[in-house]
Amino acid sequence: MSDVPARRIVVWCPDWPVVAASRAAELEPLVPAAVFAANRVVACSATARDSGVRRGMRRREAQGRCPELVVCEHDPARDVRFFEPVVIAVEELVPGVEVVRPGLVAVPARG
């Protein structure tokens, strides 16, 4: 067994919950949207960020900064469901995909 640690490449979409929620709601790509859990922003779209919405922000403050914000509730099952096609596509290119969580995969690398 080698003492060299295994190398991994990770592919990460930090806003995956809002990507999945936007796809589920069939929102247009530039619509400002945010996913909330316990009235706090879990993830937000780039358009919402451009209006000042940030992770951890309370719902009322987020809506105050971006009145047109589409509010989505956190749904971990939805995140998994919409991430499955991404995993399948990555697996077609690289064997040994490890799903760390929806929005984050790791694949083995050499070199």
From TrEMBL:
**Which parts of the sequence belong to the UmuC domain?**
30-80
One protein family per Pfam: IMS
Q: Which Gene3D superfamilies match?
A: 3.40.1170.60
From what superkingdom does this record's organism come?
Answer: Bacteria
GO biological processes: DNA repair
Q: Write down the SUPFAM superfamilies for this protein, in alphabetical order.
A: DNA/RNA polymerases
| Coiled-coil residue windows | none
Name the UniProt record assigns to this protein: DNA polymerase Y family protein
From which source organism is this entry? Saccharopolyspora karakumensis
